[in-house]
Design brief:
The chain has 386 residues and is an all-alpha fold. The protein is built from 18 helices and no strands.
Length: 386
């Protein structure tokens, strides 16, 4: 017979994040937190300003240039409902409308978003009591690669999407592993915001649901419930857009600026690319994350990495990837690693995690030189396009 005591014992979390239900922010002082965020953003603001000077104000080959042109060309005075489709991703489009300065203004805004993301990652590792060497190596790996600077200063859309995804993964771990229900609902909303900010974010909730199923769970038999909580807001968002498109007889996918049709030409490009040396370099971060997860005895978590890579490639094939974007898969792998890697408790695990981070840092630099788009951007930064 089921008793109240047995029900409470069954539902009691195995791991508790905080006995009081509250955890400290880092730094504790709000002025210091915002100061740290601004300090982290300064190098990227400088890079954006220098690119403006070195390129003569030419942002046409960047995602920010395309976003600024698209927003400027939106038929704001039109009564045609079909014009609403041009707003997607809605959150990015609205912010781009109010941010002054065109592509440069978007680059500075992206730099500020990058500073915020770095501070919140430091805060997350502080809360999980990561050893100091691990914190330093993780943050350096993310911040000191050309890929991070490139995305934050040239693609406001990707910067927002990555930030919402990264913060969502942090809250996902707090929800699944530490039974923090508030963090679970917040994670679901953050993944939905990622979908509203970046077209590739439409698939983020799928990856999050998979991660929720394989992370260390604080409550047994909660696998399905965890996945539903984090995926529901994004599914509700997509469902609303589908209903809106159908209601106005524009087609179920009209509100996301595309038909999500399989493009055989793009699929052929992806297949050919993945079989090339550049393709193997592209897949290297995914392979490293999978091997590290296996070495740390979390093979289920390792499945998140290849599914994430597959979703990014699928987004490209379906035409959802905005122009001028590179390095998204690499940065997503880093954010997944930072969020889901458990606290290293032995010298061997600390060395393994730090070594993995250093290897990913090297891969990031190699990808930057191998990628024509990022390489051209770096060429402009150091003294003119090649």
């Amino acid at each position: 017979m089921t008793t109240a005591e047995s029900v409470f014992a069954r539902d009691a979390p195995l791991f508790v994040e905080s006995e009081s239900g509250r955890i400290e922010r880092y730094p504790r002082n709000a002025w210091l937190r915002w100061g740290l965020r601004l300090l982290a953003a300064v190098p990227f603001i400088v890079i954006a300003a220098w690119f403006q000077i070195a390129s003569g104000g030419d942002w046409s080959d960047t995602a920010n240039g395309a976003l600024a042109a698209r927003v400027d060309g939106l038929p704001w005075g039109s009564s045609d409902v079909a014009a609403l489709a041009e707003l997607y991703p809605i959150l990015t489009s609205v912010l781009a409308l109010v941010i002054p300065g065109g592509a440069l203004g978007l680059a500075i805004a992206g730099a500020l978003v990058g500073g915020l993301l770095l501070q919140l990652i430091v805060q997350s590792m502080q809360r999980k009591e990561f050893p100091q060497p691990v914190r330093i190596v993780f943050v350096a790996t993310l911040a000191l690669t050309p890929m991070f600077a490139y995305v934050m200063t040239t693609s406001f859309e990707a910067a927002l999407g990555l930030t919402f995804f990264g913060l969502g993964m942090v809250d996902l771990v707090r929800f699944v592993t530490y039974a923090n229900t508030q963090a679970g609902f917040r994670a679901g909303l953050l993944f939905a915001c990622s979908a509203l900010s970046d077209s590739t974010g439409l698939f983020v909730a799928i990856v999050a649901a998979l991660a929720a199923a394989f992370l260390v769970r604080s409550r047994s038999a909660s696998r399905a419930a965890n996945a539903i909580v984090v995926v529901f807001p994004t599914l509700a968002l997509i469902g609303s857009l589908v209903v809106l498109g159908i209601a106005f007889r524009l087609g179920p996918l009209a509100m996301i600026r595309g038909n999500l049709e399989w493009d055989p030409a793009r699929a052929a490009i992806v297949a050919e690319y993945l079989l090339s040396p550049s393709g193997l370099l592209y897949l290297a971060p995914t392979i490293v994350v999978v091997l590290t997860a296996i070495a740390l005895r979390y093979p289920g978590v390792g499945l998140v990495a290849p599914v994430m890579t597959a979703m990014i490639l699928l987004a490209f094939i379906l035409g959802l990837t905005p122009p001028g974007v590179a390095g998204i898969n690499y940065l997503l792998m880093l954010l997944v690693a930072v969020a889901v890697v458990p606290k290293p408790t032995t010298l061997v695990s600390i060395l393994l995690v730090c070594t993995t981070s250093v290897i990913l840092w090297g891969i990031g630099w190699a990808q930057a030189f191998d990628n024509d788009t990022v390489s051209a951007w770096m060429g402009t930064i150091v003294g003119g396009a090649p």
